[in-house]
Amino acid sequence: MRLLGAVTVTAILGFLLLPALVVTLAAFNGRAILSFPPETWSWRWFVKAIEYQDFQLGFRNGLIVTAWASSIALVVGAAFALALERYEFRFKRALETVLLSPLVVPHFTVGLGFLILAAQLGWARGYAVIVVCHVVLVLPFVLRSVYISLRNLDPRLELAAASLGAPPLRVLTTVTLPLLLPGLVSGWLFAAILSFNEFTASLFVTAQNTQTLPVALYNYVREYADPSMAAISVMYIVVTATLLTFANVFLGLGKVLNVEHSR
Amino acid sequence: MATRPNGGDIAVQLDGVTKRFGKTTALDDVSLLVRRGELMTLLGPSGCGKTTLLNLVAGFLMPDGGEIAIDGRRVTDVPPYRRESGIMFQQYALFPHMSVAANVGYGLKMRRIAKPEIARRVAEALALIKLEGLEDRKPRQLSGGQQQRVALARALVIRPKVLLLDEPFSALDRNLRASMQVEIKEIQRKLGVTTIFVTHDQSEALSLSDRIAVLAEGRIRQLGTPDEIYCRPVDRFVASFVGDVNVLHARLEHIHGATAALALGPARVLVPALTLQGAAPGAMVDLFVRPEELRVADEGTPAAVCGIVAAQIYQGGHVDLYVDVPEAASGRVLIRVPGREGMSLWPAGARIGITLAVGQGDRLQGCGGRGYPKWARMNVPA
Predict the structure, then answer these.
(1) What is the domain extent for residue A21?
(2) DSSP H helices in chain B
(3) Mean of the per-residue pLDDT values of chain A
(4) How far apart are alpha carbons B10 and B70 in whole angstroms?
(5) Whether residue A207 sits in one domain with residue A131
(6) What is the average per-residue pLDDT within B3-7?
(7) Average pLDDT over residues B250-267
């Protein structure tokens, strides 16, 4: 039984890591085809990927969109989470359902909807529509993350601070926000990763000059099939892993990912 | 409400305070005066409104009716951060992201006091609670008792006009609880800080308080010193909530002035007549007797009631005898016998006679309200 369990776990982990492994090996292929395993080894696809103009532009666009989208989603999500956790009001359930609905609505639908809307309003060529679209898509994740941190925050801490002479704004800055920090950072981080990787909806709402990296990759792969795609993927993995490692070192992944009681 | 400039010797004044949550009334027209420097306990079962009352004084809740004043200043709609009350919660609510020193100094920092002065007063407060040297620890690195001391120091360092304690001992184990009670009482007396203490534990209330307000269903049932509450409870609820009590069926013989005579078996018992107003001679009434006021009758002497020992519980300094007695309302009485002899003298199954320790015929002259024999009593509800 033990052996069977170990084999199962290994198999599952293997399947999780297999695509990343295959792509990584393919990225170092010396020949101009996507094949596995590579016959000769080379860094040249990395160089090509970095030097390719559409990828550079896509990376830059992606950073701009991600920075705005995840930050706006953080502020909006935190405000809604606070309202949902602290206050009782009519249509609370309905609001919660609406806020979490992007989880069940396909990205395709969201992207198409925003495309039609943006065309009507005449801002189909700008960043604004992409940012708004991404905010909507990542909001549920930020909301949940902050909401869980709030649930674990003992309201008596805020009462104690108030009784010690702290006006509401100082309670917020000295007690509430510092204790919510892990939740806020993890919410922001998830939002950033999701936004930077988002493809389906982005395909609809980006234009040639505003396309994000996944869209640029898609456009590239429609015409070429060389390993620079794989090289980009490897860089993606490395950057994301580095970000998460930093988050782990400075905040503790346990705190970022889990429910932890702060008492 | 009259607000005197210096408030006289009244530290906290509640005047007809009412608080409702939806359809339930948590506090119903409660008035209470807390004297400067006294330790006032709000005692009652859960849901009686005692915590609501504390939250109203702290300013965490706003009353639906009535007025609250602290130190003679009307604070009914003053927010908590301008009330200068120090509160200590059951789970201490220490700020987990701050050191001990930062926790204790928090209130001073909010008052924009200069850093050296904060450091001096924090050190002073930590010395008071005997936690010098732990300034840089985080709360989670402290034991329960230490956390509680830090919470106390944090509340006291701002020199609050009133200290509010919300069930502060219920999270501590038994031994620690007793020593913390003594310590807090000592500190409270040393600093002379007016304190409102909320608890559901009657023994805690009796041992710590200057005065106790017993609450039930949003009203104050009785307000008095621990001795008054224990020895002269005003009604059935207070008598049975504070301390152990036996309820015996007795017959009212007559009421003479402030004194009523009851017949319990062959014995005659004199009690204050106040709670028996309107009862006719011959009516059956409930006689409330504390366990330590019952005695096992000596062999051959007349007993008020007789019964069979059901169980004996050894308590170290005394023995609790549970005796099946038909005259008791619950069918059983509890007798508290000092010393250890009870264990061997009256084993389970023994048939014993029971007498009342005080209040026999010879005490008749002494009855006059104060200094009364220790009975609680009242009508049997029809």
Answers:
(1) 1-42
(2) 50-58, 100-110, 115-128, 144-156, 174-191, 202-208, 226-231, 236-241, 342-345
(3) 86
(4) 8
(5) yes
(6) 46
(7) 83
A160 touches chain B (CB under 8 A): yes
Where in the sequence is the domain holding B332, given as residue range(s)?
244-379
Tokens at residue A180, please? Answer: 């919510």
State pTM to two decimals: 0.77
Please tell me the distance from the alpha carbon of residue A29 to that of residue A41, in angstroms, as a whole number. Answer: 5
User: What token pair was written down for B156?
Assistant: 């006291």
Same domain, B224 and B321: no
Contact B83 A154 (CB under 8 A): no
Q: Do A159 and B58 touch (CB under 8 A)?
A: yes
A184 close contact with B: CB closer than 8 A? no
> Inter-chain contact B93–A160, Cβ cutoff 8 Å?
yes
Q: Is B151 found in the same domain as B87? A: yes
How distant, in Å, are the alpha carbons of A132, B4, B64, B67, B220 from that of B14? Answer: 53, 14, 13, 6, 12
Residue after which a domain boundary falls, among B214, B236, B258: B236
Residue B1 lies in a domain: no
pLDDT bracket for residue B2 (50, 70, 90): very low
Q: Are strands B195-199 and B162-166 parallel, antiparallel or unpaired?
A: parallel
CB contact under 8 A, A154 and B106: no
- Same domain for B55 and B169, yes or no, is yes
Q: Identify the weakest region by mean pLDDT among B53-67, B129-143, B247-261.
A: B247-261
Are residues A6 and A73 located together in one domain of the fold? no
Structure tokens at B149: 């001391």
In a domain, A240, yes or no: yes
d(CA A165, CA B81): 4
Mark A164-181 as b/e (b = at least 16 C-beta within 10 Å).
Answer: bbbeeebbbebbbeebbe
Phi-psi region of B312 (alpha: psi -120 to 50; beta: other; left: phi over 0): beta
Q: How many domains does chain B have?
A: 2
Does one domain contain both A154 and A240?
Answer: yes
Question: What is the C-alpha end-to-end distance of chain A, expressed in Å?
Answer: 40
pLDDT at A23 over 90: no
For A196-253, how does the pLDDT look when each residue is reduced to its tens digit (9 = 90+)? 989 999 988 888 888 999 999 899 888 888 888 888 888 888 888 888 887 777 666 5
Which residues in chain B have Cβ-Cβ distances shorter than 8 Å to A263?
Answer: 91, 96, 140
B236-252: pLDDT as tens digits: 788 888 888 888 888 88
Those of residues 54-113 in A touching chain B at CB distance below 8 A are none
Cβ–Cβ contact A178 with B under 8 A: yes
CB contact under 8 A, A163 and B91: no
Query: In chain A, what residues touch B106 (CB-CB under 8 Å)?
Result: 161, 164, 166, 174
pLDDT bucket at B278, cuts 50 / 70 / 90: confident
How, if at all, do strands B305-314 and B267-272 pair? unpaired
Closest CA to B158 of B240, B228, B207, B88: B88
- Residue A53, chain B, CB below 8 Å: the answer is no
Nearest CA in chain A to B152: A160
Residue type, B67: E
